[in-house]
Structure formats: structure tokens, C-alpha cells
Amino acid sequence: MRRPETTGLIVRQKSPLNLEFQFSSLADWQIPVDQFYVRSHFPPPGLHEEDWRLSVEGAVERPLALSLEALKALPQARFPAVMECAGNGRVFYEPAREGLQWQNGGVGNAEWSGVLLRDVLAAAGVKPEAVEVILVGADRGVVDGGKKTASPGPIAFARSLPLDKALSDGVLLAHAMNGEPLTPDHGYPLRAVVGGWFGMAWIKWLAAVRVVPRPFRGYWQARDYFRWERGLGEPMLVPLDEMEVKAQIAQPVNGATLRAGEPFRVFGAAWGGETALALVEVDTGEGWRPARLLEPETRYGWRFWEHVWTPPRPGRYTLRCRASDAAGHVQPAEQRSDAESYCANWIIPVEVKAVAVRPGPADDFVI
Ligand SMILES: Nc1nc2c(c(=O)[nH]1)N[C@H]1C(S)=C(S)[C@@H](COP(=O)(O)O)O[C@H]1N2
Ligand SMILES: [Mo]
């Protein structure tokens, strides 16, 4: 088990262990594994690759039981991708919402390697009646330790993907993170990587890939991790899927003291769902200005950005950032009301103070 006290991670829950990345320390485009946030509903199941098999079952021509070795013998793929917990930023909801009180560090970007789910599905042969693919984790338990009256259990952590997403080139069954085998916390020996989607879809400790002929209504998408779609009729419950467009400020932090008249690098990261990020803007009190988007630009990775700003005079300032994607989605200014305690992507202001730069002591001057 990792030791948060040596890595600076914030403990959000001790058992099962849930850890938040210190977003203000953002520096590496690929977050080192020992800095990466951990979100687990149940304790890691303690799998060993020697006796572990991935079952590919349901509406398939040839059910399979694949060892890690067999998976590694299939064509390998790798890509960077950002994963954000749907509960990231929950602490900003007003009034407060139940659940782990994530600030802005329930997110991270890494490079993932493994096998495309679609290659595994092709090996098994998907039957024509298939509509969804359920990914089932090997972890099980009673939801929220049975503290809520409606807590079911024990159940496995499982979630489905629509067939078109499962067959896209954006879903990986990954055995490695940043070039190293997955650690127990991050889903060893195999986890899903669902490019553009919130973290709850990225099933860890994969046990089964189950192809099904009707939509799955499991706990983790019909009772949790959903939002409301309000049209003309009754509101409809929709499982969460794509991440929402979002930019976060890593520096300066809320409450920071800057120096008036000296340039400061406002810095952060931005990401979204399946659509490419188009723009990040920063407002320091004089209106929205485009930030500089930094390399690299990848299909599913996040984007670092910066904006050099000089506080013109001593005083208090409110900094804001917002991202837009190529489809015209813009980060909203107001808290959303359709997603329970999830998808907190509205703009979060950062308050800073600028102070006068004091002249050096007189004995700095040689007369
Ligand atoms: N089997 C299993 N997979 C899981 C979870 C879990 O509790 N069990 N948590 C999900 C959630 S809510 C998130 S945000 C991500 C977190 O992945 P990480 O711990 O590697 O950061 O894993 C997802 N996959
Ligand atoms: Mo999550």
C-alpha cells in the first residue's frame, strides 16, 4: 500500500483507501503513479496474474478465458488519456453534497498500454443481437459499508459501454500505466481505459467482459453515477458518460500572495469529453483573455495552459479560467442542477492578493 504522508496525496477516505492528488503541485504532464489519485469503492481484491483470467462472455460466438500472457500476445496499443472522477470538485457544491469531498485533484493524466477492447471482442466474435458491453470488476462489497438504508450488497463494481464506444479505438484494456505494470490500487492486473469518459467507466481489476442484448441497469449507472435529462416529459435518468469541458487553475492557489508589478505565470490543465479542446481563457478582472495552450495535443490527454499576468497594483484580485471545446461547449458560470453531486465543471474563482514589492535594505547600496 502506498503511504500518502510521503507523496503529499490527500487522504479522502482510509478504508477503502481514497487519495486525492494535490492539484496545486501540477508539474508533470503524465502524473507519476505515486501521485495519481485513487478512487475505490471496495478494497482491492488482491489478484495475482498466475491464476487470474479475463472472461469474455455473453452474446459472443466463442467465450474466452484470457490470461494476461494471452492478452499481451494480442496487438498492443498505447495512448495518453486523462481520467477525472465524476465527483471531482464536489466540495464546491452549495449546499454541501454527500460523498467524498474532492477538491480539484480527483483527476490525472497518464499513458496507458494494453489491448484495444475491440480486438478482444473481435477474437470472441460479437453476436448481432449485442447492444452493450458490461465491464465487471473483481471487487465486491456492500455499498457505502451498508450505512445507507438502500445500500445493496454485496455487489461487484460493474458498468456498461454502448457497443459503438466499446468497438471504437478509444477503449483500452490496460495492463500498464506510464510504462509500468498497474499497481494494486489502480487495477492490477487489468483495467479499462475509456478515453473521454469520467473515471467510473474505467473499471479496475477486470474480471469479465460481458456482451449483452439489452441495456444494463446496474447499480453504478441506474442508482449512482447518473444525471437527469429534462426534456418536455418526465425527467430521464441517464448514466454519466463523457467528461464535461473544464479548465482548472493549479497556480496561483486560492489565498496566494503575489507581487504587484511582477509577472506571474497563471498555470493549469484543461480537458473535456470526446470533442477536442478549443480554447482556454483567463479573466484577471479585465475580461476574458486567451491563455496559451501548451504541447502536446493528443486525442484523449489533457492540455496544460499558461497565462502570464502582472498584477498592476497592490490589492485583491479574482482569477477565473474557462475552457471551450470544438463543438462550442463552454464551461458554465453557474453550478449545475441536473447531476446530483457530480460533473462539477462550473467556473471556480481563485482569490489572490498582490502586495507592493518592498525596496531592498539600504545596505544593499554601496556608496
Ligand atoms: N473495479 C472498480 N473499478 C473502478 C472503481 C471501483 O471502485 N472498482 N472506481 C471507479 C472510479 S469512480 C474512478 S474515478 C476510477 C479511479 O481510478 P484510479 O483509482 O486508478 O484513479 O476507477 C473506477 N473504476
Ligand atoms: Mo469516480
UniProtKB/TrEMBL annotation:
The keyword Oxidoreductase applies. SUPFAM superfamilies: E set domains (SSF81296), Oxidoreductase molybdopterin-binding domain (SSF56524). Residues 41-220 form the Oxidoreductase molybdopterin-binding domain. Its cofactor is Mo-molybdopterin. Pfam families: Mo-co_dimer, Oxidored_molyb. InterPro entries: Ig_E-set, MoCF_OxRdtse_dimer, Mopterin_OxRdtase_euk, OxRdtase_Mopterin-bd_dom, OxRdtase_Mopterin-bd_sf. Keywords: Metal-binding, Molybdenum, Oxidoreductase. CDD domains: SO_family_Moco_dimer. Gene3D superfamilies: 2.60.40.650, Oxidoreductase, molybdopterin-binding domain. Residues 241-348 form the Moybdenum cofactor oxidoreductase dimerisation domain. The keyword GTP-binding does not apply. This is DMSO/TMAO reductase YedYZ molybdopterin-dependent catalytic subunit. It comes from Labrys wisconsinensis.
